[in-house]
Amino acid sequence: MSRRRPRRSCRAKLLKPPCSRITRPRVKQSRPSRTILPGATHCFTEHTYVGAETSSSTSALPAQDTSSLSMYTYGIVNRGKNPALVQIQISPNAVDYAVDSQEVIAGGQTKALVPQRFLRYTRLAIQSVEPDQPTRLDVYFQAQRMP
Fold first, then answer.
1. Residue pair 53/87 in contact by the 8 Å Cβ criterion
2. How many other C-beta atoms can be found within 10 angstroms of the C-beta atom of residue 134?
3. I want to staple 56 with a disulfide (CB 3.0 to 4.6 A). Which of 17, 38, 131, 132 is the partner?
4. Which residue from 72, 58, 84 is spatially nearest to 113, judged by alpha carbons?
């Protein structure tokens, strides 16, 4: 008796996302890895920074080149119980940054932040509201590029 391998369905090809590039970091702070899938006309990008810890001084997450993105948002989840000050910073050259907007995120709260102005580079800076009261943040940068 010979055993045949089950046939793969043609349907599997149709279920691939319609995206020319999908990037999904492997959840290590500031070390995203990318998966590139063939596809059609738009692109979704995601960078995840899990467990970013605040301190009494401002620290910045890696900058994103947002020059070719149509839409992008930072999702921030405060996993701790202390509040955090979060700033969206923008830059024309990835060296000189200006504060675009800022928000205090209470412990246990989730917020979505979108820049109000455009420059080529965008990053998030985080800080504890009260000295000696750090908290942990999960930060999700999600973006989409349309043709």
1. no
2. 15
3. 131
4. 72
